Amino acid sequence: MIRDKVNLMRRYWLLYFFIAVFAVISIIFGIYPMISSFCYSFFKGSSVMSNPVFVGLDNYTKLIHDEYFWKSFRLTILFTVISVPMNIIVSMILAQLLDKVKRGQLFFKLAIFIPYITPDVVGSVVWKHVFNSQGAANSLLTALGFEPVGWLTTPETAFAVLAFVELWKHVGLYTIIIMTNYQLIDRTMYEAAMIDGASSWQEYFYITIPALKPAISLNTAYAIIQFLKTYTVSRIITFGGPNYSTNFLSYYAYSKYERMDFGSATAVATMLFILIVVITLLGGKLKRRGL
Amino acid sequence: MRRRTKTPVMVLIYAILIIVSFVMIYPFLWMLFGSFKSNYEIINYPLSLLPKKWTVEGWRNIQMLSGNPLMHYFKNSVIIGVGTTAVVVLATSLGGYALYRKKDLPFFRVIEGCFSIALMYPAVLLLIPLYVIVIKMGLYGQGNFWGIILASSTGAWGAALPFFLFRNFFSSVPYELTEAATIDGANEIQLFFRIMVPVMAPVFSTSILISFLTSWGLWLPVVMLSQDMSTYNLAAMLVNLNSDLGVDLSMTAALSTCITLPVVILFLITQKKVMEGIAAGSVKG
Question: Between B118 and which of A30, A64, A186, B281 could a Cys-Cys bridge form, CB atoms 3.0 to 4.6 Å apart?
C-alpha cells in the first residue's frame, strides 16, 4: 500500500510543483487560520497575542448567556430567510422579463449585472447617503406628498435597507445564472406544449421551473452561505444599529475583535461556521431526497 | 416558433425593466454627478441628478488623502489587484491541472478539501488569525504588500470562482488526451505547456478578468493587514473617509467614482466574457 503510494509520488513528483501554490493558499492561508481561530476561542480575551490564558469553554458559555449574541443569531437567520427567496424570486422574474425583450436587452442586462462587479464598499457608501434622513429617498417621499421615513434610525427600516442594498448588489449575478440555464432548456418542449394548448403559465410551471431546478438549488446554496456571512453593509451603512437591529454575526464578531476580545470574537466565528455547515449539510440532505 | 406577447404586456415589461435599470444604475449617476457638485448642493438638493453648478471641488480635495497623493492609492490598488490576480490564477490553474491529472496522489484530496472548507468560513473572521500568520511570516510592515496579496488570494476572497472555472474546464478535457501524450514520453511540464496551455487561452483570460474585478475593490484584508496607510488602496481609503465624522459628500462621490470607473470600463469592454464566465463557473460549480 505505502509502497504503491511512494511509487506513485515518485512517478508524478512534478505534479507536486504544480499544486504547490494552491496548497499554500489552501493550507497556510486557508485551513490553518481556521484551525487557529478555533483554538483562540478557548483562550481568554486579548491574551492570545501575548501570554495565552486557557479558559476552556468559558467563551462559549458566556455567549450562550449573552442576549446580544442570540439576538444577532436570530437576525442573521432572519436576514437570510428573507434575502435568499427574495433574490431568487426577483432574479427569476428579471430573467423572464429579459427573455421577452429584443430591443435593449443588452442594456438592461448590463444595468442589472453591473452592481455585482462594483466594489461593495462603494455601493454601501452611496446607498447610505441616499437613505440618510435628508437623502434622496426621503426627498422623493416628501415630493410625492408622504412623510419622510427614518430609514437608518428605525430598526425595521434599517434592516430592510440592508436587505435592499444586498439585493441590488447580488440579484444581477443570480439573474445571469438563471438566464444562462434558461437558454439551455430544450425548445422543442415548449413547442410541444404549445401544440397541446398549454397556457404560458402552465409552460412556466411545468417546463421552465422543473428545468431550472438544478440552477435554482445551486443559487440557493450560494445565496444562503453568502447571506449568513453578510458583513460589509452593516459595517459601512449601519454599524450594527440602530439598537443592534443589524448586528449580524459576522459584524458582531468583528466588533468584538475591534475591542481586542479575540477569544469571544473567534467563539462567535466558530458558532457562525457551525451554523453554515449545518445548513449546508441539511440542504444537501434535502437535495438528495429530491426536494 | 414562439409565443407572441401582446403589445400592452410588452409596454409593461419595458416599463418595469426601465425602472429596475434606473434603480440599478442610480448609485453610479449619484457618484458621477455628485463628484461635480458642491457639498452644499448635494445636501440641499438631493433629488436633482445633474449639478446646478459644476465644480471640481470634490476632485481637488481628494488629490491629497492622509498625506499621500491620490495616485499613490491608485497605484496600490493596481499592485494589490494585479498581485492578487497573479497569485489566484497561478494557484488555481496549476492546482486545478494537478488535481485533474492525478487526483489520487497522496495529499491531493486533502488539499482540495482544505480549499473547499475555507470557502464556507466567514472571511472577515479569518483575518484575525491571518493577521498573526502574516506577522509571523514577516510579511507585515510598512510598504509590504505580500501579506495583503496572499490573504486576498484565498478561497474566502477571490479564488473560488477562478478555481471552479479551471476545474470545469479541465473536466471537459478527455483524460485520454493527456494519457496518450505520457506514453509518448512527455513529462508533466511538457504535457501542460504543449497540450493544455494552447487551449486554455479563453479560460485564462476569463479568470484573470474576474480575479482582477473582484480584487480591485477589496478593502477589509487591506485595512487589517496594513501597518499604516502607505499600503491602503482606493477602496480602503473610501472606508477610511466614510468613518470620519462629518463626511464630505463631494469627496466621497469623487473617490467612489475614481474606484468604480476603472472596473466599470473594464467590465463594459469585456462584458460578454465576464458574464459568460461567471455563469459558467457557477452552473456546475
Answer: A30
Q: Which fold has domain B69-283?
A: MetI-like fold (1.10.3720)
Ordered by start, the domain boundaries in chain B are: 69-283
Distance CA B170, CA B140 (A): 36
Number of domains comprising chain A: 1
Cβ–Cβ pairs < 8 A, chains A and B = 291
Residue of chain A whose Cα is closest to the Cα of B17? A108
The pTM for the full model equals 0.89
A128-147 residues touching B, CB cutoff 8 A: 128-130, 134-136, 138-140, 143
Contact B279, A219 (CB under 8 A): no
Query: Does residue A160 lie within any of the structural domains?
Result: yes
Residue A27 lies in a domain: no
CA dist B276 to A113, B199, B261, Å?
A: 12, 18, 22
Q: Do B128 and A37 form a contact (C-beta atoms < 8 A)?
A: yes
Which pLDDT tens digits describe chain A residue by residue (291 residues)? 777 878 877 777 888 888 888 999 889 888 898 898 888 888 887 777 777 778 878 889 888 888 899 999 999 999 999 999 999 999 999 999 998 888 889 999 999 999 999 999 999 999 998 998 888 888 888 888 888 888 888 899 999 999 999 999 999 989 998 888 888 888 888 888 888 888 888 888 888 888 888 888 878 888 888 898 888 888 888 888 788 888 998 899 888 888 888 888 888 988 988 988 888 888 777 776 655
Name the DSSP letter for residue B173.
Answer: S
Grid coordinates representing A112? 442589472
Contact residues, B window 226-255, toward A, CB-based 8 Å cutoff: 235, 238-239, 242, 247, 249, 252-253
User: CA B218: distance to chain centroid?
Assistant: 7
| Helix, strand, coil % in chain B, rounded to nearest 5 | 75, 0, 25
Q: Which CATH number goes with the domain that contains A265?
A: 1.10.3720.10
The H-assigned helical ranges of chain A are 2-11, 13-23, 32-40, 58-64, 67-100, 105-117, 120-130, 136-143, 155-183, 187-195, 200-203, 209-228, 232-233, 249-258, 262-288
Q: What does chain A come to in residues?
A: 291
Q: Does residue A16 form part of some domain? A: no
